[in-house]
Amino acid sequence: MSRPSEVAYQFIREKIMEGTYKPSQKLIESELAELIGVSRNTIKKALLKLEQENLISLEDNKGATIKSFSLEEIINYLEIREVLEGLIAKSAAANISEAKLLELEETVEKMKSHLELNRFDEYSKCNHQFHSIIYEASTNIQAVDMVRKIKTQLQRLQIKTVLVPGRTLESFNEHQKILHAFKTKDSNWAEEAIRLHVSNVRKTIVDNYSFLV
Predict the structure, then answer these.
(1) Is 67 helix (H, G, I), strand (E, B) or coil?
(2) Count of domains in the chain?
(3) Is 66 within 8 Å of 28 (Cβ atoms)?
(4) Is 66 helix (H, G, I), strand (E, B) or coil?
(5) What residues make up the domain containing 148?
(6) Could you tell me the CATH number of the domain that includes residue 14?
(7) What is the CATH number of the domain that holds 130?
(8) Residue 140, exposed/middle/buried by CB under 10 A (0-12, 13-18, 19+)?
(9) What letter would DSSP give residue 38?
(10) If residue 56 lies in a helix (H) or strand (E), which one and from where to where?
(11) Which of 70, 73, 63, 71 is nearest to 25 (CA)?
(12) What is the pTM of this model?
């Protein structure tokens, strides 16, 4: 992908993730080209990449539309993610290095600090980093790839879960349990702890769906 196409792709993707561009919204190539300062052909290339990530749908003569998932689809995605995250954690706990364990521990400490200061954006970044460390330690590369795709599609929704009263503290406690499981190198405990975490994310979304969409 050329530099202009990458710039256009990153711009549109960020707007989708932060919620500026909303589910079911039409994306007009000419307007995007003028806004970003690139050609329509460049926008087309950026939109094709976004379609590959399942963030938008492209139809002949209808253009691009931001993907909108029903609650049932979201639940299905999170049920799949729960199983895959369990497989990832199981292999990661058995193979994680001391250096990666230290990274996990330091990340949890940062999460605690951000939580105490109500820095929810920073907390979310650390949350993402925590899981990335686990993915890097896992030998199940295929499961990691599938989970990353699911998280990309649901990221704009899951980011908002930190705004649900009490959820961030629950999330922090769940990450502490995952960390303890990894420190003991107990694969079954790690799998159980991370599956519970994803299950609680799903429950939070279901219980607060009208607030989050």
Answers:
(1) coil
(2) 2
(3) no
(4) strand
(5) 71-212
(6) 1.10.10.10
(7) 1.20.120.530
(8) middle
(9) S
(10) strand 56-59
(11) 63
(12) 0.85
